[in-house]
């Protein structure tokens, strides 16, 4: 299939439902409660929790999770593709983030951790901003595919190493708006 081909038939692309909307919402609420407990008294209005999401897949997870977190917080985003230089080597932490995370507790939110390359790269550049702490929260994890040693504090669901779509996750930039998470058909 050509990359720019318009895909319209969901049934031709999305196979079994891995996680229903209800299962996702329930787990997101649990994660929010856990994070609220863990950061109560630590995140304050003078020093809010910095909730940092990786674009674009984290879109809905971050929006839902934030509304379940009941401690003072700020939202920020990092666009990994924009942070790469033209020769494909990673650059430093963008200036706007350096200021935002300095001396702050950071909750770094990912849609999915697969091999762990993205997480490992972002963790490395985040420390350039001297955060007080960095905790990682991912909705999905494919531990069987991991090649990097990563430290994840909050995991929504541990899943099999299949390619999933929906709830922010794309297939050729489409299907992000599905309310559930399904498996890509072969
Ligand atoms: P990693 O750097 O951990 O190997 O991969 C993380 C990135 O790969 C995710 O942020 C996501 O963009 C992409 N990715 C990995 N697995 C999947 C998947 O099952 N579905 C989708 N849509 N993207 C995935």
The chain-level structural class is alpha/beta
Query: Any idea how many domains?
Result: 1
- Provide the CATH topology: Rossmann fold
Shape: globular
Describe this structure in words.
By secondary structure, this protein is α/β, with parallel strands linked by helices. 28% of the residues lie in helices and 25% in strands. The protein has one domain (19-184): Rossmann fold, CATH 3.40.50.2020. Helix 6 links the parallel strand 4 and strand 5 (133-141). Helix 2 (21-39) crosses helix 3. The mean pLDDT is 91. The structure holds guanosine-5'-monophosphate (5GP). Guanosine-5'-monophosphate is lined by residues 57, 111-119, 163-165, 169-170.
State the main characteristics.
186 residues, alpha/beta, Rossmann fold, five-stranded parallel beta sheet, three-stranded antiparallel beta sheet, 6 helices, 8 strands, binds guanosine-5'-monophosphate
